[in-house]
């Protein structure tokens, strides 16, 4: 333990139960020049202490990130953070990072994606969807998530994504692939309304069938919440938040708001499709977003790598499951998540 880390000591001792006292102790600790304000350097020291691993070692934090966060909290733009501004820093940033409210979103761990009609082991990446089950179960048994959510593809029989339904809809003249030439996993454009660009999949996860059920070995926790997606025949829905054209949303956002969730941990199937799309929408909604790498499997290795790169570029965090408990308990505090939490406060809206 790094005894010089203020926030590690805060979490270890009685200050965590004395909020008002801790606020003033924290301010005084980092106000090195005792002028009653935090300048940029003093705030940077605070940020480095806050955004550290469980041993108290700070993560690398660029000057740009420090400055961006400083200017969020310097509300009157006088080049310093006074006590009134620091109260916002404490309540809406530091406490959120030290005491996160976390949800695990388990995406589409359903029979058809593991051993059924769209088993991802038969896709180009050759990954086995069954591999995620034990990893997810281990997290459910050991990590104190505040909320657990299971998303399910829940398609009607005439769903637009099924290749065997191709003849039910007219392919647009702009489609690079014609109806006659279309093969499995090709992308076509259907005429509207709504005009839809659609990848063609095998029939899968049809409502009330075995293939749509959660895998029997997956642990389903008491009070776990189920979110159904892809229920509109004419629009696919990769994300657990929205359909692919953002014409309708599921109940996921409302459930996260109900529980006052700030951090979402996302895993499941498929990494480069529904897991990644859910993570991207979580970022859009302003959630501090973590993808659990070893609890996710995908369709195409190049697209998995591209999705990871995209998520990281937007300050999502990609970790293995052994890191999750410390993050959920506020012991391991990643700079990307601290950065997003600060920027969200700029205008109480998402900044990507």
TrEMBL record:
Keyword Calcium: yes
Domain spans labelled EF-hand: 18-53, 61-96
CDD domains per UniProt: EFh, nicotinamidase
SUPFAM superfamilies: EF-hand, Isochorismatase-like hydrolases
EC numbers for this chain: 3.5.1.19
Keywords noted in UniProt: Calcium, Hydrolase, Metal-binding, Pyridine nucleotide biosynthesis
Superkingdom: Eukaryota
Keyword Disulfide bond belongs to the record: no
InterPro entries: EF-hand-dom_pair, EF_Hand_1_Ca_BS, EF_hand_dom, Isochorismatase-like_dom, Isochorismatase-like_sf, Isochorismatase_Nicotinamidase
Pfam families: EF-hand_7, Isochorismatase
Pathway(s) served: Cofactor biosynthesis; nicotinate biosynthesis; nicotinate from nicotinamide: step 1/1
Family stated for the protein in its record: Belongs to the isochorismatase family.
Protein known as: nicotinamidase
The encoding gene: LOC106461530
